[in-house]
Amino acid sequence: MQENFDKFDKATANFVPLSPVSFLNRAEALHGQRTAVIYGDLHRSWAEMATRTRAVAAGLRAQGIGRGDTVSVLCPNIPELFELHFALPMTGAVINTLNTRLEPETIAYILDHADTKVVIVDRELIPLLSQAFELLGRTIPVIEITDPAAAQTATLGGPDYETLLAHGETDAGAGWPQDEWDAIALNYTSGTSGRPKGVVYHHRGAYLMALGTVAAWQMPHYPVYLSVVPMFHCNGWGHPWVIAMLGGTMVFTRTPAPDLILNAIRTHGVTHFGAAPIVLQMLAEAETGDSARFDPPIRVLTAGAPPPPSVLEKTRAMGFDVMQVYGLTETYGHISKCLWQEGWDALAPGQQAELQAQQGIALPMVEAVSVIDTATGQPVERDGATQGEIGIRGNTVMKGYYKDPEATAKSFDKGWFWSGDAAVVHPDGYMQIRDRLKDVIISGGENISSVEIEAVLYRHPAVQAAAVVAMPHEKWGETPCAFIELRPETEATVEEIISFCRAHLAGFKAPKAVVFQELPKTSTGKIQKFALRDAAKTMVL
């Protein structure tokens, strides 16, 4: 009878909050002498990694950091950022990794909106942080990372990161959250509707994301993983926690330059990495015809935009086994994958690459990824033609948007998280994105808000009306193209407009092309972006 099954209570013996912090404990206990970190001449074992991480956590507690505090980190992919993905959760704090490519204005906004208590900053990025503080109108306590591989020319007078270790190691059993629903990370979107939104992750989701990645990627123990995906992108797609679970090795190059990546792969025997399609393209272009094919193949995940088939062909020939995955900041990263099917083996390389560019099927830790007819609420036909919106349901969907209950409720309408992406489903069940419902431009793996660029353009005295859409780009996949209607009796040049945008935006957000014309509008004066998108599709840079 049901009441007999309901008599059991949760106990510490049979119910432990899920948290990726446990993966570090596992790595220390099982793989303590194996190499955890390689960065130039620096090598650290998992035992050393665990000792340092717990000491950093103790040092942060001594600084007053505790449960629910946001700590922002402005830092490239280096060992310290890897440590902080465990040290900050151990304190109960929330890690907020800042996009190092953002302009000071957006960084200032995030620091304020996130209620940041401390900023941990790589000294090479202190000038950027200083500009953000100036725009913010106040400073926030900082802890400074001194990396010998970087050009450190500035300081804000904050304590050095290494001084955190002086407080000694915390107990190995410490660090579990009070509740697995506790926040572990706060990641900001790319501002697809103007200002970026703060996406809150919980410990349970981060733990399950790591497990799901291992299953979906069929990862063995002891992978040698090259840290290419920026950790400010969904905490590096959760891969720092994955590598601890498997007792693997994280290899760092600080900057994702093609020559450094290729050298690291060959020098350290890299087996896995993740990268945006633009990185794969740069690697294909950097590799010479005389270079030996990687054998065994390097396992690669790519996401951010559908990779061009030509890039997939080239990287496959290089010995990269590339699998495309799809996800969003709101879903901890990838939640679907284009799993290779045996029937594709006999196809021509071009056909294989076309199929590899699909968004595929749900990962194991996701309850449902469905393309839904928003009018009927039902899944679309598997005909490869009927479009719907991608809806997602599972434990790796965010808690919600930080301090934005209205946006949270809207995104969770009718029991789904709505992606904003329009897609079709093929007869084999694989989904494929056809268009974006949001006006997002994905350039080199970075999401760019057309609304944000338009807001800057409207600040130019000669601009009467402006609309920004995506245009094809051979290298970056897509780049922003600005269509501008000038005010009567004013003039402006393409160079002037682009320069104006660069003065107010991060370089990668500035339009790469500008077209002056009267903008098509509806009878109510709304700009018809669909017409501009069609025009931009014929333009290639």
TrEMBL record:
Domain AMP-binding enzyme C-terminal: 452-526
One of the protein's GO biological processes: fatty acid metabolic process
Gene3D superfamilies in the cross-refs: 3.30.300.30, N-terminal domain of ligase-like (3.40.50.12780)
PROSITE patterns per the UniProt record, alphabetical: AMP_BINDING
GO function term, MF aspect, one: ligase activity
Reactions catalysed, as given in the entry: 3-(methylsulfanyl)propanoate + ATP + CoA = 3-(methylsulfanyl)propanoyl-CoA + AMP + diphosphate
Cofactor(s) demanded: Mg(2+)
Domain of life: Bacteria
Record keywords: Fatty acid metabolism, Ligase, Lipid metabolism, Magnesium, Metal-binding
Keyword Magnesium carried by entry: yes
Pfam families: AMP-binding (PF00501), AMP-binding_C (PF13193)
EC numbers, comma separated: 6.2.1.44
UniProt xrefs under SUPFAM superfamilies: Acetyl-CoA synthetase-like
Keyword Hydrolase: no
Domain AMP-dependent synthetase/ligase span(s) in chain numbering: 28-402
PANTHER family per record: ACYL-ACTIVATING ENZYME (PTHR43859), BUTANOATE--COA LIGASE AAE1-RELATED (PTHR43859:SF4)
Similarity-based family: Belongs to the ATP-dependent AMP-binding enzyme family.
Quaternary structure (record): Homodimer.
Name of the protein described by the UniProt record: 3-methylmercaptopropionyl-CoA ligase
Taxonomic source organism: Shimia marina
